[in-house]
Amino acid sequence: MDSIGRKRRGYVTRVLCVALLGVVSLPAFAQSQDLVFRDGYENADVGTATPAQAARFLTQATFGPTLSEIQRVQTLGYQSWLDEQFGRTPELHLPFLDARAAAGDDLGGYLRQESWFARVVRGNDQLRQRVAFALSEILVVSERGFDDTRALAHYYDLLVQRAFGNYRTLLRDVTLHPTMAEYLSMRANQPEDPAENIRPDENYAREIMQLFSIGLEQLNPDGTRQLANGQPIPTYTQATIRGFARVFTGFNFDGCDPDDYGGCYPYETGTEIWWRRPMIAFAGYHETSSKQLLVYPGVALPGGVLPAGGTAITDLDAALDNLFNHPNVGPFVSRHLIQRLVTSNPTPAYVARVAAVFANNGSGQRGDLRAVVRQILLDPEARNPATAPAHAGKVREPLLRLTQLYRALDARSQDGRFREWYPDSFLAQAALASPTVFNFFRPGYAPTGEIANAGLAAPELQIATDNVLTSTANAFGNVVYYYWRGNPDVSAEDVTVDLARDMALATQPATLIDRYDLLFLSGRMSAGLRATLLSHLGQIDAGDEAGRRERVQDALWLIMVAPEFVVEK
To answer: Which among 513, 336, 519, 515 is positioned nearest to 438, based on CA atoms?
Structure first.
């Protein structure tokens, strides 16, 4: 085993070095052909899928394919599978924490991670959970800035419940959610009082524009930048920030005493808990002067100015309408969601098709996330890899690599719980635990060198440090080589994977590799990787149970750390 271990370590060292250099294929992509622009509601390849096509679809739409779900997609087809998922009851995260509190547990953040893993790995509402996770990386709150465990879970459940709703509704709910207000310091925001040196806090005003809706630069409908004299055009000014900051005054937790507006912090009292209800308006603390908002073609407010005299609620709704109807919102949000679900570098035509659905879902409604998600997943660039650019695809987030492994191998514990408590310690990621409001990685991040020189983005590589690459490979090794069902050294509380199902194929290495090619690579394994795996597995004696298990374990681990798995195509 020592010699085999040395071989494994040497292989992984080579793999990890290559992974950073070979993230994307870059031949002549600058002149890559975009798809001919199609009507926003026309989708290619929505009929019967092959197993490989179904697996690739599920990689984008869930937390990882399973053999049974691949068969379901083949049986139902893409459209019907989506319809079924849209109709699934949301599986919420907070009830588990409420149950643990009732059982007397100390509600640390580790229990919120347990709740998250249990739902994303074993939940039936996979598409909803996957979209909610994508939204959590756009509309960011984090335990690193605000660490109330159940308040964070309640916020995440808002994203789960609104994942297929309207983006305008979502923006309002996020704005009034106490967790967001606490995280970005909007709560208890006060009107301007120069005599007391009080000015409205501008934090949320900036982020709702820069990160949640329109971005920093004016965009064309296809997401490309508008230019004036060769320079990008800013979407807003400091005056706009001040205007929105004044809108976001006069809100505090439901239950606060107006006489203690600035210092109120109502702690839990039975079921009447501050973070379970949206914030409410406190009229005496709202800035009633006029407010400069966004200016754009077709803006409803003359000059983008919100007149004086409005209430906190009327000003809020007028400001959110002003923001939501900005022409940037469709391409900005669409591109971000495409990046999280399908590809880091969507073509302008892809963004334009999705943004057109954001603008009008076919029934005259703007901001319909259900229609947007459908378009993203059924778009020709998502479903037909042969017609997509050479650089299409994305680096898999470390957290999604782990969930894919868990789902493919039916991970669970004997006592039914899912104690995967500290994923950020080895993956640099955990749900609602990003280091800043800018998420774990910026959507436009490009590592220096080949990718940056090509004008491409590889956001996930921003956290691909030497330490993370090593700890991630080691973590997958721990799962495969130690935390397997039946290992006498693991406890009933440990999350374990099922190797027994695939050990039946261990005497047929080519068939075993085919199965993992389907589950992890969507049938796109290269001839070179296949030959390497066949050669290695052939050197392991599979004459007994231990040998057969070793073949399965080696096949899994070598695939999990291979660039072909790290880079989702």
So the answer is: 336
Distances (CA, A) of 480 to 335, 485, 486, 546, 563: 35, 10, 12, 14, 18
Q: In the chain, where are the structural domains located?
A: 2-38+394-431+465-568, 175-325
Half-sphere exposure (Cβ direction) of 559: Cα atoms closer than 13 Å: 32
Percent of the chain predicted with pLDDT > 90: 85
pTM of this prediction? 0.91
Q: 120: Cβ–Cβ under 8 A, 6 or more apart, which residues?
A: 63, 126, 129, 130, 133, 403
Residue 536 Ramachandran class (φ > 0 left, ψ -120 to 50 alpha, else beta): alpha
Mind giving me the DSSP string for 374-393? HHHHHSHHHH-GGGS-TT--
Q: Is residue 497 within 8 Å of 484, Cβ to Cβ?
A: yes
DSSP-derived 3-state class of residue 560: helix
| 24 pLDDT above the threshold of 60 | no
Cα dist. 446→23, 197, 243 in Å? 11, 42, 33
Structural tokens at position 364: 């005259």
Q: Sort strands 251-252 and 227-228 into parallel, antiparallel or unpaired.
A: unpaired
Dihedrals phi, psi of 67, to nearest 5 degrees:
-60, -40
Task: Read off the tokens for 450.
Answer: 């080949």
CA distances 381 to 48, 70, 345, 418, Å, are 17, 20, 11, 36
pLDDT in the model for residue 113:
97
**Nearest Cα residue to 22 out of 471, 564, 400, 398:** 564
∠ Cα 66 69 73 (to 5°): 135
- The C-alpha atoms of residue 54 and residue 48 are separated, in whole angstroms, by 9
Please state whether beta strands 231-232 and 394-395 pair in parallel, antiparallel, or not at all (unpaired). unpaired
Give just the sign of the alpha carbon dihedral 334, 339, 342, 346: positive
| Cα 489 from chain centre | 35
User: Who's near 358: CB < 8 A, 6+ residues apart?
Assistant: 167, 329, 330, 331, 333, 334, 366, 367, 368, 371, 372
Phi, psi (deg, nearest 5) at residue 368: -75, 105
Cα radius of gyration rounded to whole Å, the chain: 25
Q: Could you write out the DSSP letters of every residue in 160-217?
A: HHHTTSBHHHHHHHHHH-HHHHHHTT-TT----BGGGTB----HHHHHHHHTTTS-SB
pLDDT tens digits along 447-483: 999 999 999 999 999 999 999 999 999 999 999 999 9
Residue pair 351/335 in contact (Cβ under 8 Å)? The answer is yes
